[in-house]
Amino acid sequence: MMSNAKLISLKTQSGATGLGEPALGDELVTHLVPVQLINPKAYRVETDRQRDIRNDAMIWINRSQLDVIGHEAQVGDRLVIKPNTLNATETEYDVTDVNARGIGNVLELTLAVRDDNAGGA
Asked: Tag placement on the chain: N or C end, fewer CB within 10 Å?
């Protein structure tokens, strides 16, 4: 897996506020975690949409990177990803689906861009 981005923040959904917005737990990432950021193909976006899964982007991450911090990826996690390009800006996402790739040592996380400021990562 080639890294083209970094995971700079990871928080789990620990509940909900009185307004129904997600309440987030503590920051789990203590160092930058290399990931492969993937721009999904149109057929994948459509297939996921039919399954009621929003797919704005995907990442592949080594499961061992999450094992080190004692976390198992789950729907509702809040991530902040920054591409490894010049003047790149970070983007905040919610995990909408989790799938193991190959023999399970790499996870594919389907992501939806946060389009509000609620809960911030």
From this structure: N
Residues 110 and 101: beta-carbon distance below 8 Å: no
What's the CA gap between 102 and 26, in Å, rounded?
Answer: 31
pTM of the model: 0.86
Q: How many CB atoms lie within 10 A of CB 73?
A: 20
Burial class (CB in 10 A: 0-12, 13-18, 19+), 26: exposed
- pLDDT per 10-residue tile (average), the chain, 121 residues: 91 79 80 94 94 96 91 92 94 95 91 71 45
For the chain, the straight-line distance linking the first and the last C-alpha, in angstroms and rounded, comes to 26
